[in-house]
Design brief:
With about 450 residues, the chain is mostly beta strands. It has a single domain (about 1-445), classed as Porin. The protein has helices at about 1-20, 30-35, 50, 440-445, and strands at about 65-80, 85-110, 115-125, 130-135, 140-160, 165-185, 190-210, 220-230, 230-245, 250-260, 265-270, 275-285, 290-295, 300-305, 315-325, 330-355, 360-365, 375-390, 390-410, 420-440. The protein has a 20-stranded mixed β-sheet that branches. The radius of gyration is 25 Å and the shape is elongated.
Length: about 450
């Protein structure tokens, strides 16, 4: 019985950990896009278009290579309080570097139409996380570390069907691995829980289109973009291990899938003169009915919705770019604002007594259902700049977003009747990005 309960516990903890650590707002990459609040579907005129909107690749004029990296800083502030005047709080943060994107693109001309071929690699899901705490009074310590990621290998092409319309497609091969360790020590008793994700795999397509009104009317510098990412199952194998210093150990293996939904978006950009561009995006990620599914080696199966509210993840993004043009260099100034939807929801639960379990502990159940939950959505801002030369360019960006998640519980009857408590997490993420592009054909001449 103990082994069975532990197996179920590890399954639940592991799946929740996969969900909690990751940013499921799958987007493109690049410091230029980030500086504009990622309002890039209707612009998509550099190599990162291979994932933002492959239809935009035909805007490339050079045989080029690019790289994108950055530094990510996460901070979480946790508070706990109850109606017995007890309060507790903790604050943890971590910073790590991240190589996010590599690409090469080559433009060709077929008669009077342009064809651009491109290949890239992008980090889509980042598992990096750290947490550490210590309580000297209770002689307790806790250490958690996680690393790894899920990447896509991208092969894309875009063709200029008409002077005003380009269509593109990208094939995305998903692969990667993650590893996490957790250690808890109570005085002379310790536990170590280790979970390892291996062999993530999957495949989907990104389809895109760019409609350029300026090719029809010179005085209407409007571009409209559309992108569709096909749904697929992101498969994974998972190994869980539990050990304690009393000699007890346990291992479990299971496999599963993450139902990655269809994602689609629309964007528009308008250029005012030669210097100023305004962009706006609307993107929907159809997580409403997506699920985590798993099956262990004994044939036990389970599933859970990715979104507790069973709602789609919908994002709005607005950005601008102003160019300072000199004879030697172009200096862009960028600004953006966006909302940040999550797969979380605030909860306010009334708990009702259901009786005692086999050990005499009271069992409570909440009366909350999906209709009582409201999706948690944060807000973010960004800015950026860069330097554009004849043979290469560099771009810089800074972005930050924040949201607060609150759980409130009230025990309505039974032995804990009248007890109330609330937990709150304020999460803030700041990212500094750097992109570099080398126009290879300028060195080959």
């Amino acid at each position: 019985m103990l082994k069975r309960l532990l197996a179920i516990f590890i399954l639940a903890v592991s799946i929740n950990a996969v969900k909690a650590e990751l940013d499921w707002n799958i987007t493109g990459s690049g410091a230029r896009a980030a500086g504009m609040g990622n309002a890039f579907i209707g612009i998509a005129d550099d190599a990162t278009a291979i994932n933002w909107n492959p239809g935009g690749l035909t805007a490339l004029e050079h045989f080029e290579a690019s790289v994108v990296g950055g530094v990510i800083h996460d901070r979480e502030e946790y508070t706990y309080s109850d109606n017995q005047e007890y309060e507790n709080s903790s604050d943890f943060k971590y910073t790590h570097a991240n190589l996010n994107f590599l690409s090469v693109a080559y433009p060709l001309h077929i008669k009077d139409r342009k064809l651009v071929l491109a290949a890239a690699m992008q980090k889509q899901l980042d598992f990096f996380s750290e947490d550490e705490s210590e309580n000297e009074a209770s002689r307790y310590s806790y250490i958690y570390e996680s690393e790894g990621g899920v990447y896509t290998i991208n092969i894309g092409a875009s063709y200029q069907v008409f002077p005003y319309l380009s269509l593109g497609a990208t094939g995305n091969i998903w692969t990667g691995a993650s590893e996490s360790t957790q250690e808890e020590v109570w005085d002379t008793y310790s536990e170590t829980f280790t979970a390892e994700n291996k062999d993530f795999s999957g495949f989907n397509l990104t389809l895109g289109a760019i409609f350029d009104m300026s090719a029809i009317k010179d005085n209407v510098p409007l571009k409209i973009g559309a992108v569709l990412k096909t749904p697929f199952d992101l498969s994974y194998d998972y190994e869980a291990q539990f050990e304690s210093n009393d000699g007890y150990s346990y291992e479990q293996y299971f496999s599963g899938t993450v139902e990655m939904p269809v994602m689609f978006g629309f964007g528009a950009s308008y250029r005012f003169g030669e210097n100023f561009t305004l962009g706006a995006d609307f993107e929907v990620r159809n997580y409403a009915k997506s699920k985590f599914r798993w099956e262990d080696e004994d044939g036990n199966e389970g599933e859970t919705y990715m979104s507790p509210t069973e709602e789609d993840v919908t994002q709005f993004r607005l950005g601008m770019e102003y160019l300072i043009i000199t004879d030697a260099v172009v200096i862009p100034l960028r600004l953006g604002i966006f909302n940040y939807p999550t797969l979380w929801a605030d909860r306010e639960d009334d708990l009702y007594y259901q009786g005692d379990d086999m050990y005499g502990n009271p069992v409570y159940e909440a009366d909350t259902d999906v209709s009582d939950l409201e999706q948690l959505v944060g807000v973010g801002v960004s800015l950026g700049t860069g330097l554009v030369f004849e043979s290469f360019s560099v771009d810089f960006s800074m972005s930050v977003f924040s949201y607060e998640n609150t759980y409130s519980y009230r025990y309505m009857d039974g032995p804990w009747s009248g007890y109330e408590y609330e937990e709150s997490w304020i999460t803030t993420k700041a990212t500094a990005g750097l992109s570099a592009v080398i126009y290879l054909d300028t060195f080959i001449k």
